[in-house]
Amino acid sequence: MSADRPTLAPDRPRSLVHHPDFRRLWAGDALGQLGAQLTGVALPIFAVQQLAATEWEMGVLTAAEYAAFLVIGLPAGAWVDRMRKRRVLVVADLVRAAVLATVVVTAFTGHASIPLLVVAALVISAATVFFDVSHQSYIPGLVGLEHLVEGNSKLQATASVAQVVAPALGGVLLRVIAAPALIAITAASYLVSAFAVGRIRQRETPPDPATRRPLRVEIAEGLRFVVHEPYLRRIVVCTSLGNLAGALSAAVTVIYVLRTLDLGTAAFGAIVSAGAVGGLLGAVVAGRLAQWVGEGRTIPLAALLMAPAAALTPLASTGILPAAALLIAGGALFGFAVIVYNVAQVSFRQRVCPPPLLGRMNASVRFIVWGTMPIGGLLGGWLGTHLGVLPTLWISAAIMTLSALPVVLSPLLGMRDLPGGPVAPVPTRDA
């Protein structure tokens, strides 16, 4: 970082809303989140309703959205640690905007197809890998370690607001405009996001190229840190199993809502929005909840809440209560639990990791926890085709229940405070 612009001056205002560079990052993130959520509504509906996607095709599309985390997730962290992270964020936004613009053009000219959407999802997935790793690694240096929880809470709250507004807005707009028009709005939002992030004034000084070691050595250091840090290791196992269950469910959820339950696009948007309302509440109370319950205990308790929330989705087909009501309740509870869990565990891993390892640590975590998602998407598509949509959702709920065990059956449940530095020595290897 340049010496003429410190991360936070000693007399800085207490809130990050007064931090100019954080505001620029916050604005760019908000625009990108809004557009991404609109695409998350428009793309699967476009695939199911206009391209008549099957369960297997939806599974492949879901897998493509996360495939890059499995394929390039590990080297991306080492690459990011060698780059200016702000520049990576801007380029990733521009790539996603260009790809979505291509989808829009092909849709309006009648050349859209499921294979095209899969290719687009793969490219966007690769750009998202670099964006997310850079984003999480950028926050500590931008706001300071003592403001990590506040910064993460604000960004999580913004994501939750976007998740509330976008699905409801998308459900209404899809009654009067085509799905490709919503995707076009997303492309524009990425362009504006790139502009906002590009205005951040703080300058980064990348590591001296002379200090670089072989890529495999740097990748191995990040992966070893994750594996050797005892609390982080349990969190990663929990998150990876939960994401496997979530992707398995996501592969068939749109078909379940639109075809099996016949609830319509407006109801689908309302259901997704309800989940985001829970997430927004979680982002607002996450900091206070960690102070009240304890940061350590928050992680396993939030993981436990995800299991009953996931079970409410297949229960919606039983007729015990109106299907939409159960889906809304389950989504709200799940969104709350996920955001509370994420604020606690992301802040912990940012704080516990030495700054030079941040990019590789985040990439290693993403490789493991997001790498299960393309597997879950393909598995969900296969199970949906051969067993049916409803059994697939019950299998997802069972895996979600098992995912909580690594953190529930651990010292985390009895811990109020999490460590502020590495619990285990940082593993290194000479070049």
Structural description of this entry:
- The chain is mainly α and 431 residues long.
- It has one domain (18-198, 215-413): MFS general substrate transporter like domains (Growth Hormone, Chain: A), CATH 1.20.1250.
- Helices cover 77% and strands 0% of the residues.
- It contains 15 helices and no strands.
- The protein has helices at 20-50, 55-71, 73-81, 85-108, 114-143, 148-173, 179-198, 215-228, 230-260, 264-293, 295-315, 323-352, 358-386, 389-403, 405-408.
- Helix 3 (73-81) crosses helix 8.
- The longest helix has 31 residues, at 20-50.
- The protein is globular.
- Residues 1-13 and 421-431 have low confidence and may be disordered.
**Uncertain segments of ≥5 residues (pLDDT<50)?**
1-13, 421-431
Q: Please tally the helical runs, counting DSSP H or I stretches of 4 or more residues.
A: 15
SSE sequence, one letter per element? HHHHHHHHHHHHHHH
Q: Work out the count of structural domains.
A: 1
What's the shape?
globular
* Radius of gyration, CA atoms, in whole angstroms: 21 Å
**Portion of residues in helices?**
over 70%
Largest sheet: none
The CATH superfamily bears the name MFS general substrate transporter like domains
**Secondary structure: number of strands:** 0
At CATH level 3, the topology is Growth Hormone, Chain: A
Q: What would CATH call the architecture?
A: Up-down Bundle
Structural class: mainly alpha
The rounded distance between the terminal residues' Cα atoms is 26 Å
The percent range for strand residues is under 5%
CATH class membership: Mainly Alpha
